[in-house]
Design goal:
It contains 20 helices and 16 strands. By secondary structure, the protein is of the alpha/beta class. Helix 6 packs antiparallel against helix 15 and helix 8 packs across helix 9. It binds pyridoxal-5'-phosphate (PLP). Pyridoxal-5'-phosphate binds next to helix 8 and strand 9.
Length: 470
């Protein structure tokens, strides 16, 4: 698709390239030093010349003298971009771990902005006029939503699991099924976390089958807890059985009739949804309310997976157990920031109002119908039709983020009918607001499910720019 006329002689073009010094002394380029600094300007001019050389190498002409200012300014602007940036996720993976997991709701974003504009009562009791606790702000709401007696928020779910084990199980045994000694990703392995916490791992059962009796037989005077870990990112099928949480609670209760034995039941839910996933055509992800009702002493889950809020580790459980966690020195090291608490509180309030599906992006994406997504993909196709050949095709989105493995949601994709999808994908990543896409069956495909309607104009612009560069 390159349209460069064959008449360009690279040798001549190379000769047209100005010297770095000459460019630096062009009036408007010289002026850029005032706002960007002299060293940054020299670097940018060198880079501009390098890029022009590379373009000549692939058969393009040398830039006109008038173009250099724009090119240098562009490079300076690129360099001043923060490395952590907003982007458009067109992959159709809703909770994308590499792309910052859950996008925040409007209410959560506003809450962060509103609270951080000045001081706040993070640790100040307004009624008493004295010291308060940062943990009181979300505690009541979380208890109300889950049915738990008490709650504590820490930095993420990995730290929640660690704190629970360190504060309540160090030096004693934690019994886990061999089928649940999982690696979550990013090096988070349950056996390693257990070891770090100072607790002793007692493995029972086999990879595919563990029975209630396996737990019962392992309980002794050194038992601190029975632990269940949700198999977030894989699924076992076939000859498989694991005791239910209710069965573990029953085993722990019976064991507690023996003097000096009081095993806790710990449930690491991972995603920990507050909403039932089945009305959306998905398998049943265990809810936090179910774990509370089943009688687990401590339940841990993430703030930025299916909850759809900021990164946080949410711990709910019995008053006595949570009180021990709150007093543990590690709670201070793992504590959350005011921005997290503001965003979390606003997210939880959407659930309390019964408006989670409408207000929380993760749930809005899960709830989007294939019909609606087809209409959106078709609309995109029409908007770019004049410049890029594309087709709307049926496909699948996934929930991702270590939840609902193997589960898909039917969607419609905009497939670009252009060669070299790898190059197209790379160009889309370079857009002003980068667009991350998928390559499927040798084509770039874009899934409207994970693209907010406010992002649509940017996406279409990026596609149109792509056509201009072809
Ligand atoms: C995701 C997950 C974790 C880790 O949670 P983060 O919030 O990412 O720290 C721990 N346990 C399970 C079962 C998980 O799915």
């Amino acid at each position: 698709m390159t349209t460069s006329p064959p008449s360009i002689d690279p040798t001549l073009e190379y000769r047209k390239l100005p010297a770095v010094d000459a460019l630096l002394h062009l009036p408007q380029i010289e002026d850029l030093a005032a706002t960007h600094g002299g060293d940054a300007l020299i670097d940018a001019v060198r880079e501009a010349v390098d890029r022009a050389r590379q373009q000549i190498r692939v058969g393009k002409p040398a830039p006109q003298l008038a173009d250099w200012l724009g090119r240098v300014a562009q490079i300076l602007a690129e360099r001043e971009q923060p490395t952590l940036r907003l982007l458009i996720n067109a992959t159709g993976v809703i909770i994308h771990t590499n792309l910052g997991r859950a996008p925040l709701s409007l209410a959560a974003r506003r809450a962060v902005e509103g609270l951080t504009a000045g001081y706040n009562n993070l640790e100040y009791d307004l009624a008493a006029g004295g010291r308060g606790s940062r943990y009181d702000h979300t505690r009541a709401l979380l208890c109300e939503l889950t049915g738990a007696e008490d709650a504590l928020i820490v930095n993420n779910n990995a730290s929640a699991v660690y704190l629970v084990l360190a504060a309540l199980c160090a030096g004693r045994d934690v019994i886990i099924s061999r089928g649940e000694l999982v690696e979550i990703g990013g090096g988070f392995r349950i056996p390693d976390v257990l070891r770090q916490s100072g607790a002793r791992l007692v493995e029972v059962g086999t990879t595919n089958r563990t029975h209630p009796a396996d737990f019962e037989d392992a309980i002794g005077s050194t038992t601190a807890a029975l632990m269940r870990v949700h198999a977030s990112n894989f699924r076992q099928i076939g000859f498989v059985t694991m005791p239910s949480l209710a069965q573990l609670v029953e085993i722990a209760r019976r064991a507690a009739e023996i003097p000096n034995i009081h095993p806790l039941v710990i449930d690491d839910l991972g995603s920990g949804t507050l909403l039932d996933t089945t009305p959306f055509g998905l398998a049943a992800e265990p809810t936090v309310q179910q774990s509370v009702a089943a009688g687990a002493d401590l339940i841990t889950f993430s703030g930025d997976k299916l909850l759809g809020g900021p990164q946080a580790g949410l711990i709910v459980g019995t008053r006595g157990s949570v009180a021990i966690l709150r007093r543990h020195p590690m709670a201070r090291a793992l504590r959350v920031d005011k921005m997290t608490l503001a965003a979390l509180d606003a997210t939880l309030r959407s659930y309390a109002r019964g408006r989670a599906v409408e207000e929380i992006p993760v749930w809005r994406m899960i709830a989007a119908t294939a019909e609606r997504l087809q209409a959106r993909a078709e609309h995109w196709r029409q908007r770019i039709a004049a410049s890029i050949p594309a087709t709307v095709i049926p496909g699948e989105s996934t929930v991702g983020g270590g939840s609902l493995p193997g589960e898909t949601l039917p969607t419609f994709l905009l497939a670009l009918d252009l060669p070299r999808p790898d190059l197209i994908a790379a160009q889309l990543r370079q857009a002003e607001i980068p667009v991350i896409c998928r390559i499927w069956q040798d084509r770039v495909v874009l899934d409207p499910r994970t693209v907010a309607s406010e992002e649509e104009d940017h996406l279409v612009n990026a596609l149109q720019k792509l056509a201009a560069e072809q």
